[in-house]
Amino acid sequence: MTQQIILDPQMRILVQGPNKSTADAILRLLKTNGLGNGKYEQQQIPALMACEVGEVQLLICDADGDFRTTWLFITALKTASNIPNIPVMITGKIGPAVSAAQLQEYGIHGFLKQPVDQREMMSLLTQTWAAHQNATSTEGQYSVAKQALIEQKTELAIESFNHLAGATNHSARSGIGLAQAHEQNHDHFAAQKAIDAVGESSDFSMLLTKLKLALSTENWEQAHTLTQNILNETKMHPVAVLQCIEALVSGKGYEIALKVIRTAEKKNTMQDSFHLLAAKSLYMTDKIDEAIAYLKVAESKEGRTLRTLEVRGRCHLRLQQFDLALDVYSDAIKLDSKNPQSYFNRALAHIALKQYPQAQTDLETSLKIAPSFVLATQKLREVKQLLLGSKAG
């Protein structure tokens, strides 16, 4: 049985469930608390889609022990009525297979146990409505969109930032978010289009996003110009310089990163974190001796961390110092035994030393931690061939 209750001209609550007595109890409690003095409407679920649910601002569903069926109903209602952001409360038993985290993931704002307690229901109703208002405000929408981006829910992020771009007349913040979401989807053209829609801007976040986009398309000349713009606009502010260098190193703009670092050295504005970034850039440009020199400074500043050991191990591999590389990656594994890259890198040293059984063990461990590690899969196949060859010989 599905019932509607009009609370006031601005708000309507929809109460749904197979148990009419539960729906009636909830409606009575709402009315007792001064809510829902308007008319009631009752409809069967199949007829619900004909209901004017576009104005519904809160959905209360009685799960009655069958959460899956209830959730299918909620999904169908949201899809058919084009109200994807409607807040939802669940009543009744939902079954042991559904956790609080899953409820949150499904967009359930609150859960009422049965029998429904009046004070508990009104408290949860207030909290649910407040949470929904926050989520539908501009700031709340930004938070939702940004979280989707962080969690790599790319389609949701694109949809959310697209909506914000339209609602805010293509503000810099919405354009940046939309561009980042498209970049996450490897759609450079759409990302550039999102940036262009914002227009000219000297905003640091916008310049940094443009820089990352230029790096992703290997437009080194534009990346160099944007880097200079960032440094000029921020007057070499330490935080801005650090983020700029990190973006350059991440985007393989190593030569540009080194120029920025050397400028910081001349201006005596070097930060501790710059040394490791310099070591990475120098290693990637085959300047191994210089990389090790910067690495020593980095280690003196922050100790032998997983990050410094990773770079040092690569330098030893490049210099064909395989025994030293083994020691370094073994130290890295002691610091973090769940890092698949450390096992993979140590396997490379074992292979160079023709220690194929040890290499196989490390590669299998790497894949156990990260089953989709493509390079480890390929290298393991090669090692198994080498083992067969050595046995045949």
Strand content: 5-15%
End-to-end gap = 77 Å
> What series of H and E elements makes up the topology?
EEHEEHEHEHHHHHHHHHHHHHHHH
Q: Name the CATH superfamily assignment of the largest domain.
A: Response regulator
Major sheet summary line:
6 strands, mixed
**Whole-number mean pLDDT:** 78
Q: What is the strand tally? A: 6
Order of adjacent strands in the largest pleated sheet: 3-1-2-4-5-6
Query: Rounded to an integer, what's the Rg over CA atoms?
Result: 29 Å
Number of domains: 4
Say what the CATH topology of the largest domain is. Answer: Rossmann fold
The structural class is alpha/beta
Judging by the overall fold, what is the CATH architecture of the largest domain? 3-Layer(aba) Sandwich
Number of helices: 19
Which residue ranges are poorly predicted, with pLDDT under 50 across at least 5 consecutive positions? 1-10, 37-54
Structure description:
The chain is an alpha/beta fold and 393 residues long. It has 4 domains: 135 residues, Rossmann fold, CATH 3.40.50.2300; 62 residues, Serine Threonine Protein Phosphatase 5, Tetratricopeptide repeat (Alpha Horseshoe), CATH 1.25.40; 93 residues, Serine Threonine Protein Phosphatase 5, Tetratricopeptide repeat (Alpha Horseshoe), CATH 1.25.40.10; 84 residues, Serine Threonine Protein Phosphatase 5, Tetratricopeptide repeat (Alpha Horseshoe). 66% of the residues lie in helices and 8% in strands. It has 19 helices and 6 strands. It has a 6-stranded mixed β-sheet with strand order 3-1-2-4-5-6. Strand 1 and strand 2 form a beta hairpin. The protein is extended. 35% of the residues are buried. The N terminus is likely disordered.
